[in-house]
Amino acid sequence: MYVRFWGVRGSVASPGRDTVVYGGNTACLELRLNGSDRVIIIDAGSGIRSLGAHLIRTRSAPIEAEIFLTHTHWDHIMGFPFFDPIYRPNTRLKVYGPITYEEDTLDRIVGDQLSYRYFPVRHSELSAAISYHQLREEEMRFSDGLRIKTKYLNHSLLCLGYRFEHDGKVLCTGYDTEPFQNVFSDDPASPGYDPVVCEEGARAVADANKALLDFFRDADILIHDAQYTLREYSAGKSGWGHSPMEHAIQTAIAAGVKKVVLFHHDPDRRDDELQALEKRFRAAQQPLGKPEILVAREGMQLSA
C-alpha cells in the first residue's frame, strides 16, 4: 500500500510564504492498495480539492472512491464542496464517518455545507451518486482482502482512528487526539477529592491508553496528531484534543511502529520551525533505530 498526503494542516487552511515547504491545506490523505483499483480517501479537508483534480486528470474510467472521515470538524470536511468528482454524473462515492449526534446524521452534517446559505450549489443538485455510512467502533472486511478497524480517540467530538490492513501491511491514523488523562483530582487537599473515584479514573485512563497502543500495534505507518510541542501543550493546550509531538513519538515506540508521521500541523507553525523540529527529533531517535520519524508534507508519498 502507499499513501499520498494532499493536506497536512489542522484547524484551518494556512497558505502563505511560511507554509510553502510543508503546505497549508487541511487534512486529506489518498491511500492505494497493491493490486487494486480501490481509491481510498481519508478526510475531506481543503487538500481534497487538488486530489479531485488529480483523479479527473489521470483516470480514464469513471471515478469510484470511498471517503473515510475521522470526524466532522470543519477542517476535515471543508474541501468536500470543492471535490470536482461530485459534479460528474459517472462518479460513485461512499462516505464513511462516525455518528456524532443521532439527530444530525452524517449525510446531513456533510451535505449541509452545500446549501444556499453557504454555497451556490445544493447537495441535491450534485450529479454523482453518493451514499453515506455511519460508523462506530467496528471492523469491516472487503472482498479484495482489505480489513478496516476503527477506534474512538480522545477529542472534543466523537472521532475515529482507522487501521487499514491489506496484503500483510498496516497503516493507522491517530488524529485528532491527545493522551487520555484522569479528570479526577489526586490531591487529598482538594475539596472534591475522593480516593476511590480517583483510583477508578486512573484505571480507566490506563485501560484507554493501552487500548489505543494495541490499536496501533506493529503498524508499518502511523500518521499521528502532532499539533503542538510538549512545551506548548503543557502551557495551556491540554484538553484541546491534540497531541504534543513528543507523545506521538513515544506512542509509536511503545506500539512497535516502523514509521511515524507527525501530522495535523498547527496553522501557525512555520516551515523553518517544522524543519528544525524534524531534524531534532530524528537526531534524538537515530541511535534507537525504529521508528523512522517523518514530518508530513503536502505531496509526500510513502510505501509500506
Task: Please provide a written account of the structure.
The mean pLDDT is 95. The chain contains six helices and 14 strands. The strands form two sheets. The protein has a seven-stranded mixed β-sheet. A seven-stranded mixed β-sheet has the order 7-8-9-10-11-12-13. Helix content is 24%, strand content 24%. It is an alpha/beta fold and 304 residues long. The longest helix has 22 residues, at 195-216. It is globular, with a radius of gyration of 20 Å.
Largest sheet, if any? 7 strands, mixed
Q: Which outline best applies?
A: globular
The secondary structure category is alpha/beta
- Beta-strand percent range: 15-25%
Q: For the largest sheet, list the strands in their spatial order.
A: 6-5-4-3-2-1-14
Q: Which whole number gives the mean pLDDT?
A: 95
> Uncertain segments of ≥5 residues (pLDDT<50)?
none
Multimer state: single chain
According to DSSP, the number of beta strands is 14
User: Distance between termini?
Assistant: 6 Å
Number of helices: 6
Q: Percent range for helical residues?
A: 10-25%
Q: Return the string of H and E elements.
A: EEEHEEHEEEEEHEHHEHEE
Radius of gyration: 20 Å
